[in-house]
Amino acid sequence: MARYEKILNSWKHGSQEAQREQVMSVCNHFFQHASYGGSGTKGSHNIKIEDEGLADFPGSHPRGEMTIPITGGQRVKKYYLKRIIEAVEHIKAKKSQKENLDNETEAREEA
Fold first, then answer.
1. pTM for the whole thing?
2. Domain tally for the chain?
3. Which one of 14, 18, 19, 42 is at 20 to 30 Å from 78 when CA atoms are compared?
């Protein structure tokens, strides 16, 4: 199991909170863009995630943006870890669907 998958699994099955640095690392791995603090987010204690795949994800902005608040400037609460896990699963499902459609299209063109 890859490093980031292990982190997601630990969040899913135990962690009540996670360090901001760990959350940023995971977000940078799975999403097109993630930033902390003053770079375009309101307030300095937020992580802003941006990914086209999140445009239709419940609770995100139509442009594919999602904001994760930081508690005490250092930690992300369990609820938001769950939202990140759901967003990662949503993006993975979309990529899988796209790959399946691409493979079907390729197979039809070869026939």
1. 0.83
2. 1
3. 42
pLDDT digit string (tens) for 15-25? 789 999 999 99
**Both structure tokens of 55:** 């445009």
- Taking Cα atoms as reference points, which of 67, 37, 41, 70 lies closest to residue 54? 67
Q: What residue has token string 């998958």?
A: 5
- What does the alpha-carbon distance between residue 41 and residue 63 come to, in Å, rounded to a whole number? 15
Q: What's the pLDDT tens digit per position in 100-109?
A: 887 788 777 7
Domain that includes residue 47, residue range: 18-97
Asked if 8 and 82 touch (Cβ cutoff 8 Å), the reply is no
Residues in the chain, total: 111
Answer whether 29's CB lies under 8 Å from 62's CB: no
